[in-house]
């Protein structure tokens, strides 16, 4: 029978962003009556989320520290004309650990799993079946709103965690191995050593189209493993992603597409890196911000999260310009040259790029020197607006 529930704050979507907000609020305001609602029976879906140490500010590390399942002291990249090792922490969080930690930390009544939300406002939630929640404030963290409002390229991949019959030879993450055959845009393999005989291998494309053929990519992962001399005993788990690479767009329209006055977090708020589609660094910042707000009513939550998301969007025009150069100026089979050149730059600049915190000097440095694409096409791509084709 449908029931009525009252609480201080309802967070809809127990994925990455929603869970981090719930954890931050519980830590900073222990008495708060929080509800974390998800349509699935588990928190966080089935993911491995990776990030660089420099993505998370020192004062926010307490939030992600209990979630980290793997850590390395550096990582590598490899291109046809250049390979490099870069120092600095690199971490991975498994969704199973997020699920365990949220269950162990929040009181049982805070978790409303297996509950699909039919509709919400900034102070109420209706669950399919009729249960109604009245909340001081609601945050919508249900994943992307209408991405169709942006001009997009795609970062798409299939990743498999492989169990090998012998130890592998890789002690650090290889975050881009672009020495492989280029097809369907910029292609690279991402390989994360998760154990002595275990390695997570992702076949990834910066592609013009979102379509993905998992059968083909699985075969390419198997070929890559064979090429590295790894004998695969079995595939432990698999994940797939088609993430947005934003070339341009209207932030206000995107925000409104998820409900004009509704407080939003995560992908739904547009809080993701325009080039990688990654959202963990922004999700940590948003959680820390919410936990420090004076009031958690719907209007305050809306204004604070809108302000964060809008300022973040405005500050990231540079990445959208770079994306236009990558997708509109470079021919698909030569896109790797843009990344190859980027990875010759200073490690600090590279770290700030992934954290979404490039300085003015970083931006000038990225654009200085001979561009890896024809200059005429580069200028046209920088100037082009959504939907504008750049002639090759
Ligand atoms: C395979 C994959 C790997 C990725 N790897 C990384 C990475 O390494 N690092 C990184 O920073 N980013 C990564 N990303 C990108 C991005 O950070 C993730 O997609 C991240 O999970 C987005 O967080 P979110 O909270 O916005 O959405 P999600 O984590 O997708 O959470 C949304 C939640 O809302 C729930 N939901 C949706 N609709 C309803 C409804 N009607 N009722 C109730 N619940 C609902 C869903 O069940 C889900 O749990 C990855 C993405 C994918 C797909």
Query: Which regions are unreliable across 5 or more consecutive residues at pLDDT < 50?
Result: 388-392
Mean pLDDT: 93
Shape: globular
What portion of residues belong to β-strands? 25-35%
Largest sheet: 8 strands, mixed
Relative helix content:
25-40%
Order of helices and strands: EHEEHEEHEEEEEEEEHEHHHHHHHH
Write up what this structure looks like.
Strand 11 and strand 12 form a beta hairpin. The radius of gyration is 21 Å and the shape is globular. Helix content is 32%, strand content 31%. The protein has 12 helices and 14 strands. It is of the alpha/beta class and 392 residues long. The structure holds flavin-adenine dinucleotide. Flavin-adenine dinucleotide (FAD) binds next to helix 1, strand 2, strand 3 and strand 14.
